[in-house]
Write a structure and sequence with these properties.
disordered N terminus; globular; about 325 residues; mainly alpha
Length: about 325
């Protein structure tokens, strides 16, 4: 018991770094992707480029000795195939929603992920949430509904894409946590498998949706714009960074911690979203709903922190009792 308590204390710094890194990368990625999609509407092609860049970076990094990630193992690849499918479905629907939904509403809808994670946890035998957690999640959902009623730029297709993205993100986070724990894979290795396995699926999608080859010709035409090239390269770099930090945070902490970090960074993103990249038409219902949604997110995070803190206190008490 004493060794276990010491291990928990020593891992705090790594857990904090993973959570803060993911929060920053996640916040930056929303704005960068929105900026790219305002000039380049081919979301599937953008996602394909991000995954290809990730695959090549890890592959050559391993060849040059910069990472100790193991090579491709087809047995592991088959096990992680569902993870890759859910991840790409999540990002694909999220990018599609960003084309029609403003950033504050997009973040508000994505805050429903903790609700979906908790529901998935109940079905997987993790038990029922505490009253505070349950009430905070209800507040988040109520905020989304009220904000949507006051959204002048309401886009049914965009909203639908965002809700579907929440479902796939939930399944993806649960699978990442399970895969990292059971298979003993590092965050870099899971990221490599995820990116590599996604490429055939994404290639099929950009052809099936009609993006290819028009998306490439427009990409080459826009490559003469320095400002576009800068945000495109930033998008590719941040895509790699977000993948890594998300896997790291989920493995080092948990799927639930990753969603909590997402909720907290959403407070800053929502505020900035009112003014950046086109902004939002302000309406009393919309602002009220977003405030309620944000308050629910903060309450949820506080409730989960208190829950985790009580477990640590119990552990320390057990250690003291053991010493006596």
């Amino acid at each position: 018991m004493e060794i276990r308590a010491d291990a928990e204390i020593s891992s705090f710094s790594r857990s904090l770094f993973a959570a803060v890194s993911y929060g920053f990368a996640s916040m930056a990625m929303v704005f960068i992707n929105k900026a790219v999609l305002m000039q380049y509407a081919y979301s599937m092609t953008l996602l394909t480029m991000q995954q290809l860049a990730t695959t090549l970076l890890i592959h050559f990094g391993r060849k040059m000795g910069y990472t100790k990630a193991r090579g491709l193992d087809m047995t592991i690849a088959k096990q992680l195939l569902p993870l890759s499918i859910f991840y790409n479905a999540n990002v694909a629907f999220a990018l599609a929603s960003l084309k029609g939904v403003n950033i504050p509403m997009y973040i508000a809808i994505k805050r429903l992920t903790p609700l979906a994670v908790l529901i998935a946890g109940c079905f997987s035998g993790k038990g029922r949430p505490t009253p505070q957690v349950a009430l905070s999640v209800i507040l988040i959902a109520a905020g989304v509904l009220i904000a949507a009623l006051g959204d002048f730029s309401f886009d049914l297709f965009g909203y639908s894409m965002a809700f579907v993205s929440v479902f796939f993100q939930t399944m993806y986070l649960v699978l990442v946590e399970k895969s990292g724990a059971e298979d003993g894979l590092s965050s870099v290795e899971i990221m490599f498998y995820n990116s590599f396995l996604s490429l055939p699926f994404l290639m099929f999608l950009i052809i099936a949706t009609g993006e290819f080859p028009n998306s490439l010709s427009i990409l080459f035409a826009k490559s003469y714009s320095f400002s576009f090239l800068v945000i495109l390269i930033l998008s590719l770099v941040m895509g790699i960074t977000l993948n890594f930090t998300m896997f790291l945070c989920t493995i080092v902490n948990s799927a639930l911690t990753t969603t909590i970090v997402g909720v907290l960074k959403g407070v800053v993103s929502t505020t900035l979203g009112f003014f950046l990249l086109g902004g939002v038409q302000v309406h009393a219902l919309n602002v009220t709903g977003l405030v309620i949604n944000t308050a629910g997110g903060v309450w949820y995070s506080f409730a989960k922190y208190q829950q985790k803190k009580s477990k640590v206190v119990k552990l320390v008490t057990d250690v003291e009792a053991h010493r006596k």
